[in-house]
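User: I'm putting together notes for a lab meeting next week and I want to include a structural view of one of the chains we've been expressing. I don't have a solved structure, so I'd like a prediction I can at least talk through. The sequence is below, exactly as it appears in our construct file.
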Amino acid sequence: MEAAVFILSLVDCCALIFLSVYFIITLSDLECDYINARACCSKLNKWVIPEMVGQCLSTMLMLVSMHWFIFLLNLPVAVWNIYRYTKVPMGNMGVFDPTEIHNRGQLKSHMKEAMIKLGYHLLCFFIYLYSMILALIND
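Assistant: Thanks for the context. Below is the predicted structure for the 139-residue chain, given as structure tokens.
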């Protein structure tokens, strides 16, 4: 049972790493003017909810399986994703809004957030991999 939890978390983490890289590539394309703001934001906004669901799934798996350290490691990122999604102002296209992405350094902050999430998901990947191997050895 424990190995299955970590295998599922590992697969989920791989998907979240892919999404982080996708966010970084798309935001850097916008920064270099390879795509316009509307196309960039529509591409990124359709992946905000799947990212939030994936992070919450990983968090809930660790809560249900009583891995408290990993749960507490996942909880702030899950709460941040939910907070960011719920605090979108009315009238905006989504978390990424084409009319505001170039204002007040929002593009840089979105890029920084994507980089931090990539590092976080890579750290979680190796924690899940280690935990999975340990669970398989102990079974």
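A couple of points you could mention at the meeting. The two ends are 9 Å apart (CA to CA). DSSP finds five helices and no strands in the chain.

User: Perfect, that's what I needed.
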